[in-house]
């Protein structure tokens, strides 16, 4: 494993206990599992460098999930700390409402316009991906209002697509388990099926499956009425829904359908942007489309500070940037829109990605990572290995021929994650799946460690599942 900071040490046992209790008693975590949390609490991490993180006991782990799809340039980058400190000393904050700005906010907007495809030259800032997608909805509705098309309000997205956890972003999200117990807007948002080639009908070729999924989008637009549909939201590769790579040509064909009916295409690149697939943005470079809007966050600052952006086209800007009525202004934004310290972090992060050739590194070592992890598809438990570069999912099944799932009670994803963790690797469990989204600076030696650790862990878990009767012997 990479090691940039040998001075990391464990914390005092009493301090660790105080942190653990404060967390358990007062910190309401995202995605808390209350069946275990009150007893087990949280694992406390106290340090990180390079590709690794360290827990409070001094144990080190290769971070196979990149924080949460986001620590693209790795941990411990002093350049980011210095850029942030310098900006805090210069001007830590000032409102960007109305006609005020700061150098980092303006320079980052220009840089994003330079990097984004086509005529996506305009930026609205927020604090993360959920807000970037909420902003996209408000922007789209405002756009069609100004065009004199006030009925174009409905949003289409996909089952298993993930777009955030604010009220609107979660409504657009199609991961059904995330909706349990919560309300969503079922009047405004409609979902079409997931374009998962692994789960297609056995009689369909991938090309036929693609045409079927594209036709489903067109049918849904016609069902709702083209005069009522405003936008289609799609991740280039679906992340939290299981790293679903749609069939070849899917994005180009769905974009054509959207153009046909004047439906705006929103490419949610919160996960895929800033190097994850070897490009600053994946929409055009990986999937050959120029959407109307790109939303991004995570890798924008490599997770060092919160920041999100909604990047949109000249076409949209020309409509919304005209005075709409006497005294009327564009009333959308946030206290922290264009926060200068976060924008300074993003500028330095992008500089590092470009200067160090991280996208080129991902194309080479990410391809090696993909190949090594795909080797695990030969194991009895692994039904599918999918994804691209440093964005991979292993789907575990009870029967590879029928693709039958393992009894959820077995918690196979958690078992594999636990087995990896005791060997020094963090991977993400997601029901019967395991997801990998490491930092983008892994070496080939790091990749070998990940692949070999996963293999050992999956074999251990497979033996246990057989012994317990979850798998045939």
Automatic annotation (TrEMBL):
It comes from the Bacteria. This is Aminotransferase. Belongs to the class-III pyridoxal-phosphate-dependent aminotransferase family. Keywords: Aminotransferase, Pyridoxal phosphate, Transferase. GO terms for molecular function: transaminase activity. InterPro entries: Aminotrans_3, Aminotrans_3_PPA_site, PyrdxlP-dep_Trfase, PyrdxlP-dep_Trfase_major, PyrdxlP-dep_Trfase_small. It comes from Halomonas salifodinae. Its cofactor is pyridoxal 5'-phosphate. PANTHER family: AMINOTRANSFERASE, AMINOTRANSFERASE CLASS-III. The lineage of its organism: Bacteria, Pseudomonadati, Pseudomonadota, Gammaproteobacteria, Oceanospirillales. Pfam families: Aminotran_3.
């Amino acid at each position: 494993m990479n090691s940039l900071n040998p001075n990391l040490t464990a914390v005092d046992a009493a301090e660790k206990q105080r942190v653990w209790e404060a967390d358990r008693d007062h910190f309401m975590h995202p995605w808390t599992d209350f069946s275990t949390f009150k007893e087990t609490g949280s694992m406390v991490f106290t340090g990180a460098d390079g590709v690794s993180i360290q827990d409070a006991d001094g144990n080190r782990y290769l971070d196979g999930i990149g924080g949460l799809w986001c620590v693209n340039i790795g941990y411990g980058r002093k350049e980011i700390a210095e850029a942030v400190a310098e900006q805090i000393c210069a001007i830590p904050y000032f409102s960007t409402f109305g006609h005020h700005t700061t150098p980092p906010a303006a320079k980052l907007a220009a840089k994003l316009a330079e990097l984004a495809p086509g005529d996506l030259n305009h930026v609205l800032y927020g604090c993360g991906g959920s807000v970037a997608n909420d902003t996209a909805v408000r922007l789209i509705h405002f756009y069609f209002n100004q065009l004199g098309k006030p009925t174009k309000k409905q949003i289409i997205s996909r089952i298993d697509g993930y777009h955030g956890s604010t009220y609107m972003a979660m409504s657009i999200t199609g991961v059904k388990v995330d909706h349990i117990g919560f309300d969503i807007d079922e009047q405004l948002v409609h979902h079409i099926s997931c374009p998962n080639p692994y789960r297609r009908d056995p009689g369909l070729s991938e090309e036929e499956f693609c045409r079927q999924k594209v036709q489903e989008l067109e049918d849904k637009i016609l069902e709702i009425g083209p005069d009522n549909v405003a936008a289609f939201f799609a991740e280039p590769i679906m992340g939290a829904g299981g790293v679903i790579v749609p069939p070849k040509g899917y994005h180009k064909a769905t974009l054509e359908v959207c153009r046909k009916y004047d439906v705006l295409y929103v490419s949610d690149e919160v996960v895929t942007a800033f190097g994850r697939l070897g490009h600053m943005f994946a929409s055009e470079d990986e999937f050959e489309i120029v959407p109307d809007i790109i939303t991004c966050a995570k890798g924008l600052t490599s997770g060092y500070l919160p920041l999100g952006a909604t990047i949109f086209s000249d076409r949209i800007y020309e409509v919304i940037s005209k005075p709409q009525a006497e005294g009327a202004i564009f009333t959308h934004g946030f206290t922290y829109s264009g926060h200068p310290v976060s924008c300074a972090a993003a500028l330095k992060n992008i500089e590092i990605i470009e200067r160090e050739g991280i996208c080129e590194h991902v194309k080479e070592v990410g391809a090696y990572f993909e190949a090594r992890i795909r080797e695990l598809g030969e194991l009895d438990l692994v039904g599918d290995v999918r994804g691209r570069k440093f964005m991979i999912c292993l789907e575990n099944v009870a029967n590879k021929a029928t693709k039958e799932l393992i009894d959820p009670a077995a918690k196979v994803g958690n078992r594999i994650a636990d087995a990896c963790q005791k060997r020094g690797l963090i991977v993400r469990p997601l029901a019967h799946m395991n997801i990998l989204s490491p930092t983008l600076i892994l070496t080939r030696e790091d990749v070998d460690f990940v692949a070999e650790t996963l293999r050992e862990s999956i074999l251990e878990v497979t033996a246990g599942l057989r012994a317990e009767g979850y798998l045939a012997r």
